[in-house]
């Protein structure tokens, strides 16, 4: 029986994974790196500090890396932010869990400003009081730091929580923090790629109908 639920944002609550991949492709292209969408897309779910060295060999804490991180967010806001939508059933699931007294926490490797803007664009920014962001963790997903921070913020023990995510990186981070993860397919991963989840559903609406969280 869970007392709280930790939510990933991108791909889980908001259909934004393709937009993130495109913004990285566009950013790298501006500085002469031709990285195909198909190379970047499977990396979405990791922190940007891990995507850059994997994709183009640039460390995030370098001067060039910091410029690219800032430019990527500018491009994302300009080209992709306004078109974001919640995943099917996302708001209904969150509202139901909130009404039933569960502690709800956001756990994302994105910065706080970016996370809020994405949630707002999808009409979900008003519903979460407890949040973590990149500033709460030394290492981004798939390292477990951000989920551990969400556990602390929830006030619950890891075994009293469930995390909802959409990528293998979420599974790895949750497992490292001792939190079981329920996966949704809205991020574009396959059932096989999400094999470490305790359950897998098509989307948050399907999860709401099929998964028993227990009582708070």
General description of the model:
- The protein has nine helices and six strands, in the order βαααααβαβαβαββα.
- Helix 5 (90-99) crosses helix 9.
- The model has no long low-confidence stretch (mean pLDDT 94).
- Strands 3-2-1-4-5-6 form a six-stranded parallel β-sheet, with helices on both faces.
- Strand 4, helix 8 (168-176) and strand 5 form a beta-alpha-beta unit.
- The chain has 216 residues and is α/β, with parallel strands linked by helices.
- It is globular.
- Helix content is 42%, strand content 11%.
Key traits:
single chain; 216 residues; alpha/beta; Rossmann fold; DNA polymerase, domain 1; 2 domains; globular
Structural shape: globular
Instruction: Summarize the amount of helix as a percent range.
Output: 40-55%
Per CATH, what is the topology of the largest domain?
Rossmann fold
Query: Please, how many domains?
Result: 2
Gist?
The protein has 216 residues and is of the alpha/beta class. The protein is 42% helix and 11% strand.
Annotate the secondary structure layout.
Elements: E1 4-7, H1 17-30, H2 37-40, H3 48-56, H4 63-79, H5 90-99, E2 103-107, H6 112-121, E3 130-132, H7 145-154, E4 161-165, H8 168-176, E5 181-184, E6 199-201, H9 204-210
Helix pairs in contact: 1-4, 5-9
């Amino acid at each position: 029986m869970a007392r709280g639920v930790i939510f990933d944002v991108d791909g889980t609550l908001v259909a934004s994974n393709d937009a993130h991949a495109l913004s990285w492709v566009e950013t790298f292209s501006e500085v002469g790196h031709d990285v195909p969408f198909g190379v970047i897309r499977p990396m979405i779910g990791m922190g940007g500090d891990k995507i850059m060295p994997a994709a183009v060999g640039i460390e995030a804490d370098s001067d060039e890396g910091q410029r690219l991180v800032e430019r990527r967010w500018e491009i994302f806001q300009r080209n992709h932010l306004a078109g974001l939508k919640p995943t099917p059933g996302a708001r209904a699931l969150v509202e139901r869990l909130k009404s039933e007294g569960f502690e709800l926490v956001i756990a994302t490797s994105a910065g706080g400003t970016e996370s809020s803007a994405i949630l707002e664009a999808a009409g979900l920014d008003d519903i979460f009081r407890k949040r973590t962001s990149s500033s709460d963790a030394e290492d981004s997903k798939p390292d477990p730091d951000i989920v551990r921070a969400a556990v602390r913020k929830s006030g619950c023990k890891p075994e009293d929580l469930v995390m909802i995510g959409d990528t293998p990186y979420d599974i790895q981070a949750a497992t490292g923090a001792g939190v079981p993860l329920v996966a949704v397919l809205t991020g574009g991963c396959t059932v096989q790629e999400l094999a470490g989840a305790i359950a897998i559903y098509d989307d948050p609406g399907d999860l709401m109908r099929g998964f028993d969280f227990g009582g708070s």
